[in-house]
Amino acid sequence: MSTTVEPQATSAPNVLRAPLLSGNEAIARGAWEAGVAVGAGYPGTPSTEILEALARLEGVNCEWAPNEKVALEVAIGAAIAGSRAIATMKHVGLNVAADPLFSVAYMGVNGGLVVVSADDPGMHSSQNEQDNRLYARAARIPLLEPSTPAEARTFTTRAFELSERCDAPVLLRTTTRLSHGKALVPLGPRTEAPRRPYRRDIRKNVVLPAHGRVLHQAIESRRIPLLEAEAEQWVEWRDGEGDVAFITSGVPYLYVREAFPHAPVLKLGMTHPLPKQAIRDFAAQYPQLMVIEELEPYLDEQVRALGITPLASNLPRVGELNVPLVRKAVQAHAPPAAGGAPAEAPPQATSAVKPLPALPVRPPALCAGCSHRGAFHALGRVGAIVNGDIGCYTLGASAPLDAIDTCVCMGASIGMAHGMKKVLPPEEAERVVAVIGDSTFFHSGVTGLMDVVYNHGSGTVIVLDNRTTAMTGHQGHPGTGHDLKGLDAPRVDIAAIARAVGVEDVRDLPAYSLTEAARTIDSAMKSHHPTVLIANAPCVLAERVDFGPAVTVDIAKCTECGACLRLGCPAIQLDEGSRGRPFIDPLLCNGCTHCQQVCADCNAGIDVPYMLELMAQERYREAFDLVLRANPFPAIAGRICPHPCDHDVNALGWEQQRDYAERYPNLVVDFRSPEEPHRLSVRLVERFLGDWGTQNVSGEEYAPAEPRPARVAIVGSGPAGLSAAWYQRRRGIGVIIYDEHDEPGGMLRHGIPPFRLPRATLDAELQRLTDAGVVFQGGVRLGRELTFDALRSEHAAVVLAFGAWRGQGMKLEGREQAAEGVASGLDFLQRFNHGETAGIGKQVAVIGGGNTAMDCARAAHRAGAQVTVYYRRSEAEMPAIPDEVTEARAEGVVIEPLVAPVRVLTRAGRVVGLELIRNQLGAPDASGRRAPVPIPGSEFTVEADTVMLAVGESPDLTPLDHSEVAHESRIGVRFTGATGTAGVFACGDAAFGHGTVTQAVATGRKTADAVAAYLASQGR
User: How far apart are the two ends of the chain, measured CA to CA in Å?
Assistant: First the structure.
């Protein structure tokens, strides 16, 4: 005899009797109304909310189990003891629970037992889209498939009665659309189901082989016939009009009803076993049938096995169904009226109503401030081979972190790492790491760790313990210290478990200190015994962690190298107007300092902090390879780079020089700054590594092991083009560089004088590219020997890397009268670098304050001239490298700041002097610097027989005039370096206009990434 109890939630008079519920909430409600006593599960989208909703209703003992197998075993125990129980899980969770499922299918139940499998067609949140209807057929248990939330409630309630009638667990299958879709659901009262008496019966409840053979026979002789009769009661027959009738079940029924609202439909509520007689009767009345279902042809095959031949639907076996697919399936066989008149299509947008733009793509990413980001960044630094696991940390596999090599299933990472180490060569095996989350460790990672210890394994296991099951919505687990209802619970200690299974080396992983994290992982990987590293940091979203004030970008220091962007933090975004300048959203940033630690103000984007870490350990080869990840020319850069990396405080506010000095006092001694002996010079470290590499490492080592057939053309052999070539070649792409000069190097060879960049150093680093397989073809110019169309037709992609070779003009009175004596700084440097110094007078005036001006001044001085540099702003604001200014002055060059030219003085067509005016600094201009303001009456004249204009450079883009590539003063590119023309990219000064060699290198690397992505999209 049962009793009826009104639920507490409906006692208030204003509560609706048919509230809006999701399918998951409706299942919970149905279980509660059926008098369920025990609910157990493991959180997994799309099933999670079932147990959460059930736990909020009184009278049910609910728990999150460590995994789905345990959850089902808990529910089985409750059912065998005589009470109704439910186990909830997503579809792949049933794989974990399959062992007890198949056994309880033989044993049967006492109290009703319902197992919910939430399948995920389309893989919205899953690693596969398996069809769990096949489990019911294999286990020989009843399978119910509701179509709507209201049916989900009633099917769940009836499933418990069915379970008890047929003495079997019932599989209730939903899909993502039903689980998360909402509808009005009528409510009923709770019916208390008295616990059935427990009776000891070892022949039924102990599945020994002898018992199992008997139980299996009983399933086939008694249960299946009973269920086949039962299935006839779970049918909804809708008569209708049309040439095609439908057999369907679950959510696909809704697609059929929307696509063909008047068609005949046989809707199956129980799909194992099938209601054979109902199907035969329906087929007899409607001989032209079509089966509509998602994923596997489960129903279709069984209908055909009955001797009925439905029309082939040709529906895809991947992804979700939708209304257009259903319409298309029918229209392939019949005129539009077949199957009943199709529902009217939505009205098309008219010219008066513009369609909305597509929503921007929002790739999944780790939250701002997530500790996992620090762990994955450290793993990338040390070059680990990472076996990942299921959880939000799987996002570490995505760009730009790119830190996970494998991910199979819950708990697999440790066992897979153990297997990898068994067969990889020692140098690779050392780098193998397993990464697993706290919830996943309890789910199925402990057994893998035991296996490693028991079988004399080694290796590093990193447990990312953020104290919650974060991916599915912050559910509890045995390590959180609270249960499903929020009550305090014992907190299982991961470190204690690791030690208990035999791991002696258990350490903390400081995921918010990036260098310490990399150092810890690096040390653990070198161990010859099992090591467990635990990153113990709360989920920032669950606990609303705020580390401090939001970080801001100092635009004056930012080199736009992109180092901070490689963290993949959603708080760091790009100012699209600047083609790459980052900014930090203060609403998202919580001050975790990750970005501050990776910022080093390096123009090329070198990971300076870890380079110093490796240098301090005298691991020069690894440090050299690390540098080459961002800059293939460290010996060159170490001589000519403006080294903003030597700032006291970086662009994101980190006191980097103090950090370096505290961490690496020995490096400060060995690589002290010439200007400030107490400081470390990062530039000198890079120069040391570059020289070490040219002497000790062959470029042939970097030749791709598996070359790809795709071939890319690069126009221009300056630093940007050479960088693009290097990083594409490293990916196996064939690269040929075209240049109008006979020797490669661009501005490196023809613009920078050899006293600043020795040609032996240049040639040694460029040889590395040749050894790796990059081909150079000189003496050809785009628009002369090369045509743009030919380049595109003969190559998979084209990269334009012209550089800026045209000196910018300057309006200067008297210049037109000077037939001789006024020169472009760049033209002079090219002549000087080729040994041509004729035409340089004894009194040279250089106009400008950048590196080109300093190079001109020092070169002219070496040619025997007395040189004075005139610059319109103060010396502190000169854009030239400070070292170059100091060295120029030490060599005898005179520098006159706050002076601007007014007029060239000539006699008989030759320059004889220069009139100038003194300036004072006014308010800041658009560049952020204080603008020079002329002082009236301060004009003066100086003797000069040569005036060199070094006030900036611009690219010569005339070769692109008849191409499709957009250009004005620069080539039009997006941040990636892609132009508006498919397959055409650009980098360096002609596209980005940054101006330094190392910034050009950075744009070349970025463009190489874009080219590789483009070729991959083309299947090349």
Answer: 71
Nearest to 739 by CA among 769, 674, 784, 684: 784
337 has pLDDT over 50: no
Q: Which two tokens stand for residue 822?
A: 């006024």
Q: How far apart are the C-alpha atoms of 296 and 271, rounded to whole Å?
A: 13
Q: What is residue 529's predicted lDDT score, i.e. its pLDDT?
A: 94
- Neighbouring-strand partners of residue 824: 949
Which range, of 108-122, 282-296, 752-766, 793-807, averages the lowest pLDDT? 793-807
Find residue 61's DSSP bridge partners: 38
Amino acid, single-letter form, for residue 238: R
Distance CA 174, CA 145 (A): 6
Higher pLDDT, 689 or 9: 689
Q: What is the DSSP letter of 342?
A: P
Beta bridge partners of 736: 713, 775
Residue pair 412/458 in contact by the 8 Å Cβ criterion: no
Cβ count near 850 (within 10 Å): 21
Bridge partners, residue 113, by sequence: 85
Supply the DSSP string of 909-938, one letter for each residue: TEEEEEEEEEEEEEEE-TTSSEEEEE-TT-
Residue 4 has phi, psi (to 5 degrees) of -110, 130
- Secondary structure of the chain: what % helix, strand, coil (to 5)? 40, 20, 45
Among residues 227, 199, 59, 232, the alpha carbon closest in space to that of 143 is found at: 227
Q: Answer yes or no: are the C-beta atoms of 237 and 227 closer than 8 Å.
A: no
Alpha-carbon gap, residue 249 to 223, rounded angstroms: 23
What is the spatial order of strands in the sheet that 984-986 belongs to? 775-778, 734-739, 711-715, 797-800, 984-986
Q: Which tokens in the block code for residue 847?
A: 């106009």
Helix H or strand E segment including 429: helix 426-429
Query: Residue-wise over 115-135: b if at least 16 C-beta within 10 A, else e?
Result: bbbbbbbbeeebeebbbbbeb
Q: Distance between CA atoms of 998 and 560, rounded to whole angstroms?
A: 11
Cβ atoms of 261 and 326 closer than 8 Å:
no
The secondary structure of 507-561 as a DSSP string is EE--TTSHHHHHHHHHHHHT-SS-EEEEEE---TTTTT---SSPP---TTT----
CB 856 within 8 A of CB 880: no
Sequence letter at residue 332: A
**pTM of structure:** 0.86
**139-175 pLDDT per residue, tens:** 999 999 999 999 999 999 999 999 999 999 999 999 9
